[in-house]
Design brief:
By secondary structure, this protein is mainly α. The chain is 49% helix and 1% strand.
């Protein structure tokens, strides 16, 4: 029979498929009746609630969605809180990310992201309003907030075009995308009766993916439009987040060229969607294996490899005043970028995927120092949490005493001390180190010295809290506190009446440790006006020791003689001795002692 009409052909094909399905089910029931075994239809599969709950940790959220298309009993599981928690695992902490985006757009002063990259217009009238970090394409600002909404809505064309523009090195500032303000990245169109999202354009009843409830006339990339998009995305169920992000991955990232695959890896790290990282890495590896099979004679068949430890941010170059072309952005790998942006979930996922996280790695140590500088206690705790407990697995007890392969100017222990104890004066103008209890109105009735003392007191409270966190995570006191013995401190106290101790006669290690302790005490005493409130070196050392819990490591009471036996932290000595190698410095230490 020849069916020429297309509608008739489709109807014929549908009839044949239904007949074949009925024949198959009849044959299955006949075979089941012959063997005596009960026949289970697809609608009766997974009918047990216990089995449904047991499937949640075993299968990906996408697998549950695929099974729900054939097994009607699994459709109810998509509306349970357990499935919502599973989506958060497979996508990322969307609620927390949206809260950070809202704080950036509204300029919430309690958010550390605001003070790091985009300070609010109204703030401390006696302090600087400049951002702590220089704004770039890797900053958590309004640009990042709009990009996060684009990712969750599944509209990533603009993100790819913007990163291609930044990669080409255009003359426009990378932190400003005001020229894209009129560009509608959402599937809904302004006004009209039916954008891509269905009923109603902006402000319609329904809207498309995440477009419900936006006001009429607000550009989607404006401040009001972005806040409306955030509210709409918060109101969506987790299944919508999964569907939108997965659609963007399959249509715009993983199914395209290698450049878009690299952008998928970068965007998942930048916007904190750690649940998509394994999928991106697996798709990239399959792509590379397929290219190798298709081109067995060529050693390199792809432009850029996606590796867990490879750099994903490349510095843009610009011409300076003198004509030199210099990079003005730091190159970062995924782990360093996750620590810089404050994504502990991304860091833990990267380490689980095989990222390098050890003290002997320069990038790992730099990322740890970045977390200290930003006062990110959640990032520091993630660094020091064992891998079995979902952290990065850095042991503070294994913090090296010597530089080793690290490209540092001093030992890691000394650098950690300097980052926490020697920057109190500089951090007085950084809101992230003033704490939530700081009130700018306290400074209105004081002079410049009084304001500095008030600020210094708040900074010291945050510094002490960070040191307590390091102590709880396992940092020994002997690796943090400079190795100054009680005998040397007594000599310093006795020589105060005689004009001070002549440190030129001291060995280099003791002289340097005494200098570090003296600098820390001077920074601490800067918050006091009266001399009787200030602490001498012995009292300051005891104050730092008291920051450790009572059950801390042993052999750290007054003397630190074990430091000399085990070797100092590989310090390079005074100015002018930085060029000597480690072996020469060890010989000089032994001769001097």
């Amino acid at each position: 029979v020849c069916i020429c009409h297309p509608a008739a052909a489709r109807a014929a094909r549908g009839t044949m498929m239904r007949r074949s399905t009925r024949h198959a089910s009849a044959a299955a029931s006949a075979s089941g009746s012959q063997t005596g075994e009960p026949v289970t239809s697809p609608s009766e599969l997974f009918a047990s609630p216990e089995l449904q709950v047991a499937l949640l940790p075993m299968l990906h959220s996408l697998d549950h969605c695929r099974l729900s298309l054939t097994c009607t009993n699994l459709r109810s599981i998509l509306n349970t809180p357990e499935f919502a928690a599973r989506v958060v695992t497979d996508v990322g902490p969307v609620k927390e990310l949206l809260a950070r985006a809202r704080a950036i757009i509204t300029g919430e002063e309690s958010s550390p992201d605001v003070w790091l990259w985009q300070p609010p217009p109204s703030g401390d009238h006696l302090g600087g309003r400049e951002p702590i970090e220089r704004r770039s394409q890797d900053s958590i600002d309004d640009r990042w907030a709009r990009g996060l909404i684009d990712m969750l809505e599944g509209n990533v064309d603009y993100l790819i075009v913007r990163d291609l523009r930044d990669q080409d090195g255009s003359d426009s500032e990378s932190g400003d995308d005001s020229d894209w303000e009129g560009w509608d990245s959402s599937p809904l169109k302004l006004g009209g009766k039916g954008g891509l999202g269905g009923k109603g354009g902006l402000g319609g009843k329904g809207g498309g993916k995440g477009g419900r409830g936006r006001g009429r006339g607000d550009p989607p990339r404006s401040r009001a439009g972005t806040l409306a998009r955030i509210a709409a995305m918060e109101a969506e169920p987790p299944l919508t987040w999964l569907r939108n992000v997965q659609t963007a991955m399959s249509r715009h990232y993983l199914g395209q060229n290698c450049t878009n695959q690299r952008f998928a890896w970068l965007h998942c790290v930048r916007y904190g969607l750690d649940g998509m990282l394994p999928q991106v890495l697996d798709a990239r590896r399959k792509y590379e294996e397929r290219k190798r099979r298709e081109n067995p004679g060529r050693r390199r068949v792809f432009a850029v490899e996606v590796k867990v430890d490879a750099f994903i941010t490349f510095p843009r170059r610009r011409r300076s005043f003198f004509g030199a072309i210099t990079p003005w952005q730091i190159r970062r790998n995924p782990l360093m970028l996750g620590a810089y942006l404050g994504h502990p979930n991304v860091m833990a996922t990267l380490v689980r995927l095989g990222a390098t996280c050890e003290w002997e790695d320069d990038i790992t140590f730099e990322a740890f120092l970045t977390a200290l500088d930003h006062n990110r206690r959640d990032v520091v705790r993630c660094f020091c949490t064992p891998r079995a407990a979902g952290g990065c697995g850095l042991s503070l007890n294994a913090l090296p005493r010597r530089k080793g392969r690290l490209r540092l100017t001093a030992s890691p222990c000394e650098i950690v001390w300097r980052h926490l104890m020697d920057d109190v004066d500089r951090r007085q103008y950084q809101q992230t180190w003033l704490g939530p209890d700081f009130d700018a109105d306290e400074l209105a009735y004081h002079g410049s010295r009084g304001r500095r003392r008030i600020r210094g007191g708040y900074v010291w409270q945050q510094t002490a809290a960070m040191v307590r966190l390091l102590a709880e995570c396992g940092l020994p006191r002997r690796k943090f506190l400079p190795a100054v013995s009680d005998e040397l401190l007594a000599r310093c106290a006795a020589a105060d009446d005689e004009g001070g101790l002549d440190t030129r006669t001291l060995p280099r290690q003791e002289r340097r440790a005494l200098h570090l302790l003296h600098e820390g005490a001077a920074e601490y005493n800067g918050q006091f006006e009266d001399e009787e409130d200030m602490l001498d070196l012995t009292q300051f050392k005891q104050l730092v020791l008291d920051l450790w819990p009572p059950g801390a490591a042993v052999c750290e009471d007054g003397s630190e003689s074990e430091e000399g036996d085990e070797g100092d932290e590989g310090e390079e000595g005074d100015d002018g001795d930085d060029g000597e190698d480690e072996g020469d410095s060890e010989d000089d230490d032994s001769d001097g002692s």
